[in-house]
């Protein structure tokens, strides 16, 4: 698949934009704070209905406007699909083929994207919440069922935490209802864990091959999914054990919302014991592995969004990155200079100059 056209209205510093893209490599060139990352973010939001940069959706709307709109035409093997996302002060609405969708979860998956930015090193070095979000965002694009389970789980988790607080402050005294919520949470949580394990097993296979290639066969990458369950207890059993402690704290202590993924290189936790080079190689291998996994799961290659990453990678890692994308996936690459692009030998990129929220296609790559 590839994004054929994109239209923006009142999106951040873009009041109006209408642009056609190459199915190959598209370079977004410009100085800092001109709108390169905003444009990349708009594509990401069109795909996932949410941003990788902010949780405040009002930030999307140009300060002079009351709404923002992102529209695009996606070319898939099955044909062209028009997409539209309208963002207002009170929420969002989405359309596929000009038909409004009852739920945003029905919309996600029409356009699949993989974002790789310098901060993606936090996938390896960051907190467990970063890795959980990575799993949920990426696997949610491939599986509507997983997206549904996560949505339901979060809803029940909020209800259960609220009720635990009510029990704590004696605003409620009926633990029967807590048991009902625990059963529902265990149902959705167990499904999420099963799906995560399946996703990670497949992703690990693709990532191992890439990691061995980048490390020239010297290192083996493995994944370890970490659950906060004692012994062989099931999630349902675990939710019944620490009820008194949960009431005391007013929060749910076990479940997939607290799980983590460890990345091991030659059996050692790369988060803790890996060098910066090993951490970068691991992050690159995991992100690139998504390309092939998404193709295997959905039948379509995703779109790759690279936000100023060439400057963060050495020559060897740049080479592996470009080998993975050349002639395979549509790519959007932000940069402040074309020198790095020329060095990587990308064939026939389409270059757009961005300044102050205005975009102009360059007819020459050099000069």
Automatic annotation (TrEMBL):
Keyword Transit peptide: no
The RecF/RecN/SMC N-terminal domain, residue ranges: 2-355
Principal localisation: cytoplasm
Keyword set, alphabetical order: ATP-binding, Cytoplasm, DNA damage, DNA repair, DNA replication, DNA-binding, Nucleotide-binding, SOS response
Cellular compartments annotated: Cytoplasm
Annotated GO biological process: DNA replication; DNA synthesis involved in DNA repair; double-strand break repair; SOS response
UniProt keyword DNA repair, yes or no: yes
Gene Ontology CC annotation, any one: cytoplasm
Homology family: Belongs to the RecF family.
Protein name: DNA replication and repair protein RecF
Originating organism: Loigolactobacillus rennini DSM 20253
Gene responsible for this protein: recF
């Amino acid at each position: 698949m590839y994004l054929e056209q994109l239209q923006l209205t009142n999106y951040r510093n873009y009041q109006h934009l209408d642009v056609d893209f190459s199915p190959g490599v598209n370079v977004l060139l410009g100085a800092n704070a001109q709108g390169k990352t905003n444009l990349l973010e708009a594509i990401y939001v069109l795909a996932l209905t949410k941003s990788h940069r902010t949780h405040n959706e009002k930030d999307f709307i140009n300060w002079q406007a009351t709404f923002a709109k992102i529209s695009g035409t996606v070319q898939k093997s099955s044909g062209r699909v028009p997409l539209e996302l309208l963002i207002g002060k009170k929420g969002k609405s989405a359309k596929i083929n000009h038909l409004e969708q009852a739920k945003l979860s029905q919309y996600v998956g029409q356009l699949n994207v993989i974002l790789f930015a310098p901060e993606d090193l936090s996938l390896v070095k960051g907190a467990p919440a970063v890795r959980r979000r990575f799993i949920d965002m990426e696997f949610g694009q491939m599986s509507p069922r997983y997206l549904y389970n996560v949505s339901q789980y979060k809803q029940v988790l909020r209800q259960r935490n609220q009720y635990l607080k009510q029990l704590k402050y004696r605003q409620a005294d009926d633990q029967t209802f807590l048991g009902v919520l625990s059963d529902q949470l265990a149902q959705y949580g167990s499904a999420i864990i099963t799906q995560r394990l399946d996703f990670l097993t497949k992703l690990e296979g693709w990532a191992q091959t890439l990691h061995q290639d980048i490390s020239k066969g010297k290192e083996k990458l493995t994944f370890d999914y970490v659950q906060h369950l004692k012994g062989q207890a099931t999630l349902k059993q675990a939710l019944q054990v620490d009820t008194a402690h949960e009431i005391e704290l007013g929060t749910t202590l076990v479940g997939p919302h607290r799980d983590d993924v460890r990345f091991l290189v030659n059996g050692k936790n790369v988060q803790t014991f890996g060098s910066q080079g090993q951490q970068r190689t691991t992050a690159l291998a995991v992100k690139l592995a998504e390309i092939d996994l998404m193709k295997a799961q959905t039948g379509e290659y995703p779109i790759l969004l690279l936000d100023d990453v060439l400057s963060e990678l050495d020559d060897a890692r740049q080479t592996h990155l470009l080998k993975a994308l050349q002639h395979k996936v549509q790519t959007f690459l932000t940069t402040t200079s074309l020198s790095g692009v020329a060095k990587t030998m990308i064939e026939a990129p389409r270059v757009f100059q961005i300044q102050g929220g205005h975009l102009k296609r360059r007819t020459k790559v050099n000069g």
